[in-house]
Amino acid sequence: MSKILRVAVLLCAAHAAVAAQGTGSGVVASLATSPRALALADVGVDRDANAWSLFVAPGQLGTLNTLHTSAATESYLGGTLLSALAVALPRFGGVVAVGASVLDYGTISEIASLVPGGEASPTGRRYGAQDNLISVAYARTVARTQVAIVGEHISVRIADASASAGALSFGAARALNERWHASVALQHVGPALSVGVTENNLPLTARVGVARSAYHLRGVELAPVAELRQVRGSGVSAGIGVEAVRRNVAGAAVAIRLGYAMRESSDRAPVSGGFGVELGRWGVDYAVQRFALVDQVTHRVGLRFRRPSR
Fold first, then answer.
1. Do residues 159 and 137 lie in contact, with contact meaning Cβ atoms separated by under 8 Å?
2. How far apart are CA 53 and CA 255, in angstroms?
3. Tens digit of each residue's pLDDT (9 = 90 or more) over 177-205
4. Within a domain: residue 116?
5. 169 domain residue, yes or no
6. Taking a C-beta distance cutoff of 8 angstroms, is the pair 286, 273 a contact?
7. Taking Cα atoms as reference points, which of 209, 215, 212 lies closest to residue 239?
8. Is 286 a residue whose pLDDT tops 80?
9. What angle do CA 65, 187, 13 make, to 5 degrees?
10. Model-level pTM?
11. What element of type H or E holds 289?
């Protein structure tokens, strides 16, 4: 009986995260790993691509010309932990990127009775639940358009039940003119995941985004972004954001980010925000998001590294 209760608790935690995103299985694949994207209403397109593009705008990986690494972590809903890591490097005439994202629901000790009706006590066993995503991408420039293909391995484990599936994502990015560039992506194309007696589709996602080069206003760069996005089983959502950046002569920069999302039946507040600090080759990012139904505020912190271009 205790195992059934344990699995029920884990399923409730998983359901809370899934319901917040409006997706099926593999919810980790639908979460914005990048603190910058989270602050800008999940808009993935960026005027300056980095390793996070692997998860949100893979076509933009083709613009990178040096090593980029990114890592982030966040205490997510209901005591879950969301962590991600990405590395991108020019290789083989294009850019190779590798990344992983983990949503850990935690563990609970099993408490059971050795005899029917007897007093329950800890058995020493522990049960946990976790969603995992591993991504490997290759991107390159073809006819002034950056294109990318991403191979994915998505796995789900709840107590003793587990399932995994392979999937593909595709992306393209292109400069429309000197000021505007666009990014499109079709993500998580793959079979459904069956965990126990339940079967759910992967969060097939289509995204179209645009970003503008910065306006300059009294020494501040103002860069707007916007994106339309649809996840299987949900309506079309839209996000807009703006990033205000102030740089000094030494190369340091401080960015303030604000986003507004228009989503269908989501627990997430429409407004999100955050900031970033760059010191040479290193960058630190922070984002905050409120969930109304569970009355929780999440905080995501990330670290970026970029090797200087030769």
1. no
2. 18
3. 989 999 999 999 999 888 766 778 899 99
4. no
5. yes
6. no
7. 209
8. yes
9. 115
10. 0.85
11. strand 282-291
